[in-house]
Amino acid sequence: MNKSLHDSLFMKALRREPVPRTPVWLMRQAGRYLPEYLAIRKKAGSFMQLATNPELACEVTLQPINRFGLDASILFSDILTIPDAMGLGLYFETGEGPKFERPIRSQKEVDDLIIPDPGDELRYVTDAVSLIRKELPENVPLIGFCGSPWTVATYMVEGGSSRNFSIIKAMVFQQPQLMHALLLKLANASVAYLAAQIEAGAQAVMVFDTWGSSLSTSSYKEFSLVYMRHIVAALKADPTTRDTPVLLFTKGGGHWLEMMADTGCDGLGLDWTCDLGQARERVGNRVALQGNLDPGVLYGDTGTVTRECHRVLKSFGNGPGHIFNLGHGIHPGVDPERVTDLVAAVHSFAAIETK
Ligand code: 1CP
pTM of the predicted model, to two decimals? Predict the structure, then answer.
């Protein structure tokens, strides 16, 4: 990694080193709230045609960097690329979110799943990573990512988004061995996929566990956390990926932070239901913390956005190890000007409270 990337605010904060101001990036920073994103998606024809075209994926990845001057970039892709590459037939129906033509329900279906080769079926992702790394300003780190095995499995088993997770919960409680077989395959596929993104040029990786909070504490440990730990341990055991920081994010996982920090990860993403100061007392001497403005604040006016951003920064308090972010992705209806306000508020805070 070159010196300007190594010394970037984001990388320093992830290592819990002092920074002149808190770095900021936003989950779903490239997406439907940006008119320039909608224009490219229209040109591409669909979300998947956009995500599988490295040039276009690169262009949309850079849009929020160019518009807002954010401190980190996230690969434009999706957590469902792995099951798509496994042959489940991912498609999007307008207004309905992701769907799979062939959901996974039986032992035979799990046994038949292949672990995709990131250099083959997922080549479009690593090609996008290399191209984005080449096009990004040289001091802006690129974050690679995947979904947690549990979260990806919810889509594969349910066949799409779900409200009650009834089909996968039936699998958890009727056929736990089958559930584990699927999760282990996904964990191994995720390790290979993240390692390939790191090799192609990502400076950090993040695991998104959006649906871990659908589980009880004991089920979370058994069906989600253990597989995120597997991913972290495998990356930390391999000399080619060992030095790349890993961030874990379980939405709604605020009461599990100690266990998440125990996986050996480098940073934790927090949703807006957690208090950053309390989270820091619990795990902040072990991991960096990323978050956690309520994305709904972006529906407020400039003054509200500024005040709420400063509240989040104050709740973390003085000292290193904070990366400013939202507690979850930006909502599609947000006015991009409020994101400009958010970035300005994070920048101005350093002048108010010297770290
Ligand atoms: O209509 C469109 O243009 C598609 C909307 C969209 C976008 C912009 C989808 C479909 N995926 C993405 C990109 C994406 N997805 C990124 C990269 C861009 C960035 O962050 O700037 C990332 C990191 C994701 C991750 C993702 N996809 C998650 C985990 C994080 C989270 O937001 O909770 C999940 C759960 C998905 C599944 C998915 N893909 C797309 C949608 C609309 C969804 C969510 C569906 C649901 O709520 O169940």
Answer: 0.97
